[in-house]
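Example record for the data management plan.
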Amino acid sequence: MRAKPKHRDRNETEVAVLDALADRREEGMTVFELRSHVDEDIDTLEEALGDLKEDDLIETRKERNRTVILPDTAAVGPDESDEDEEPDIFDRIRDRLPF
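Corresponding structural encoding:
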């Protein structure tokens, strides 16, 4: 799962953070776990986390003496507009063929 399309125009580090968090929506990630997934220096990561927090796209929670970062449900997951789209030609062919 990835960041919703409406959030993909953010800077590269912020999108990478949202993408990493999207895979662990329930349990979240620590800063150290995020750093290993995002591959940015700590200052760049800290700035991205601050911007995402300011825009209410992430939240933090204390768990067992550690801080866990979780994505807001509005930031990751399937986009609501995807469900309303008409199926494309490949979807229609796939539905007709017995796979």
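Summary line stored alongside the record: The CA atoms of residues 30 and 68 lie 5 Å apart.
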